[in-house]
């Protein structure tokens, strides 16, 4: 099973940028979907952006035009470039990989999360 490790979080002022990385323990070439999610205390974990193994992307409305998701299959890493950060982007950001077995059983794996704090 693939293991994911996020990095790149930190404290940044409003309007600033951060780039998050999600490094996988094995090849991500065949993983159909990898996404970034975020969660604040007391609330559910929400999708921020995801990317297919063909490069198709999807973004939450709240981050469109500011965040960019990308994947480097050679480095087994997925990135989230976050520009124009706002205080409401403050959350723990998680990476999630989703795939299915040849028999159709679904699997997913989560990273441990990385904290992003945006100061006003």
Offer a few descriptive terms.
mainly beta, seven-stranded mixed sheet
Short recap of the structure:
It is built from no helices and eleven strands.
How would you summarize the topology of this molecule?
Elements: E1 4-7, E2 10-13, E3 18-24, E4 33-39, E5 46-52, E6 57-59, E7 67-72, E8 77-82, E9 91-100, E10 106-110, E11 114-119
Radius of gyration: 14 Å
Mean pLDDT: 96
What is the N-to-C succession of helices and strands? EEEEEEEEEEE
**Care to count the β-strands?**
11
Q: How many strands, what sense, and barrel or not for the largest sheet?
A: 7 strands, mixed
Which bin fits the share of residues in helices?
under 10%
| Unreliable runs | none
Query: What global shape is seen?
Result: globular
Number of helices: 0
The fraction of residues assigned to DSSP E strands is over 45%
Give the N-to-C terminal Cα separation.
40 Å
- Structural class, please? mainly beta
Q: What does the model show?
A:
It contains no helices and 11 strands. By secondary structure, the chain is mainly beta. The strands form 2 sheets. Strands 2, 4, 5, 6, 9, 10 and 11 form a 7-stranded mixed beta sheet that branches. A 4-stranded antiparallel beta sheet has the order 1-3-8-7, with no helix packed on it. Strand 7 (67-72) and strand 8 form a beta hairpin. The mean pLDDT is 96.
């Amino acid at each position: 099973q693939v293991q994911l490790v996020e990095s790149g979080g930190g404290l940044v002022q409003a309007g600033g940028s951060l780039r998050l990385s999600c490094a996988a323990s094995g090849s991500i070439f065949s993983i159909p979907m990898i996404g970034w999610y975020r969660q604040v205390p007391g609330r559910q974990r929400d999708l921020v952006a995801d990317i297919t193994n063909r490069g198709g992307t999807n973004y939450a409305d709240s981050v469109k035009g500011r965040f960019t998701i990308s994947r480097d299959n050679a480095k087994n890493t997925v990135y989230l470039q976050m520009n124009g950060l706002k205080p409401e982007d403050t959350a723990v950001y998680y990476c999630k990989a989703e795939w299915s077995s040849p028999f159709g059983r679904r699997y997913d794996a989560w990273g441990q999360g990385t904290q992003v704090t945006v100061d006003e």
